[in-house]
Amino acid sequence: MSEPGWVQHAIWWHVYPLGFVDAEHSGPGQRLPRLLGWLDYAVELGASGLALGPIFASTSHGYDTVDHFRIDPRLGDDKDFDGLVAAAHDRGLRILLDGVFNHVGTEFPGFQRAQAGSESDRQWFRFDGDDFATFEGHDGLPALNHDNPAVAEYVGSAMRHWLDRGADGWRLDAAYATPRQFWATVLPTVRAAHPDAYILGEVIHGDYAEIVAETRIDAVTQYELWKAIWSGLNDRNFFEVAHALQRHNGYLDAFVPLTFVGNHDVTRIASRLDDERHLAHALVILLTVGGTPSIYYGDEQAFRGIKEERIGGDDAIRPAFPADGPDGLAPHGWPIYRLHQDLVGLRRRHPWLHDARTTQIELANERFVYSCASGDDSITVGLNLGDQPFSCAIAGEVLAGAADRDGDTVTVPPHGWVITSG
After folding, report:
1. Which residues have C-beta within 8 Å of that of residue 230, sequence separation ≥ 6?
2. Average pLDDT of the residues in 119-141
3. Does residue 95 register a pLDDT over 70?
4. Which among 226, 168, 228 is positioned nearest to 202, based on CA atoms?
């Protein structure tokens, strides 16, 4: 599948709205407009799009959908959504929606009717007697029957509805759990009406390129690289990162993955890393290699948060942002925000990095020098996890980072990094 041309310039700021506006455990309210006060913050960060978590009517965390055609009443209504889309588009920000189409919540009207004995509604789900299939064993998340054409029509209709209202694309939640043929059936109907929509699938394991080809989605989430970044930095083992980047090059031959170092489902990168000095290294990798980068809200302020496998275990990684806007953020996070600005700005000035391939120049456990190139364009990156400086031959102008240059030799300081042109 050929992705929309605008995606080459896309850098998403990923927000979990129910947490961001402190709505998950609240009653009905017009809370979605609080995001309006953060759009300029996203623009100043360098983002070109707002990737929203679930915003449709649900019972609790948003992934137990009750109505795909209604804004969650804890967030607001259609008018609030239209206002957010208009304000975002006025600033040049695209809107990516989170589509939970693998499963629904137990209060989904069709499921309620199915449990009451409606045979036609039972066909929407996979029942075995009174038992129903669930998403990964969660009793509150009955899985849809994706072999039913009525389910395909419903999902396609919901996707088209919100694209009609101004959304620019979809993230397909748990795409790895949904039959691939289902998406191959649904997406052509969506693209016929909205050929410029961007369709991203959440995929954790598996053959990424094969999944993209068989589902006809544009991209999948690059969990392999995410894991290699924090694990390699913690172990001071750049061989793991280099191996992942070789595989990443192969994916880029088929599609451009969504890259990230944080999202709503994982421990925050600032908490995951053993040495806070290496947070910059994670960001440098994210924002120099090929991919469509996504920055999870709060990571740009070095928020901490550990995901726990328990009820409420996501709360720490899905916090509320200050109701009074950016001025309410703590001062200690702004240096990391400015680092994000610098690296995002570099990437925006070099949009060819979107599908750039990496080539290893020098590799050891604690140091890594690689080039990123597309056509005649290239940059070189030097990363040092060690307690001693290291020198290597790197030509070109220093674009970011700190390094001493002596002719064509650059010395990267302990726990430092550098990006040069060419």
Report:
1. 261, 269, 272, 273, 282
2. 94
3. yes
4. 226
Residue 225 backbone zone (phi > 0: left; psi -120 to 50: alpha; other: beta): alpha
Instruction: Give φ, ψ of 418 to 5 degrees.
Output: -150, 145
Give how far the C-alpha of residue 63 lies from the chain's centroid of Cα atoms, to the nearest Å: 16
Kindly give the pairing relationship between strand 94-99 and strand 49-52: parallel
Yes or no: say if 358 and 371 are a contact pair by the CB < 8 Å rule.
Answer: yes
414 neighbors 397 (Cβ within 8 angstroms): no
Identical fold between 5-356 and 363-421: no
Are the C-beta atoms of 243 and 261 separated by less than 8 Å? no
Angle ∠(265,268,272) on CA atoms, nearest 5: 115
- Rounded CA separation 240/298 (Å): 27
Predicted model pTM: 0.97
pLDDT in tens, 342-375: 999 999 999 999 999 999 999 999 999 999 999 9
Tokens encoding 215: 């589902």
- Burial of 365: CB neighbours in 10 Å, binned 0-12, 13-18, 19+: middle
The residue ranges of every structural domain in the chain are: 5-356, 363-421
Q: Provide the CATH topology of domain 363-421.
A: Immunoglobulin-like (2.60.40)
pLDDT score recorded for residue 408? 86
- Contact of 98 with 173, CB cutoff 8 Å: yes
Q: How many CB atoms lie under 10 A from the CB of residue 149? A: 10
State how beta strands 134-135 and 138-142 pair. antiparallel
CA distance 172 to 5: 20
The domain covering 5-356 belongs, at the CATH homologous superfamily level, to Glycosidases (3.20.20.80)
Q: Residue 144 corresponds to which tokens in the numbers above? A: 């849809």
Runs of H (alpha helix) within 265-359 = 269-272, 279-288, 334-349
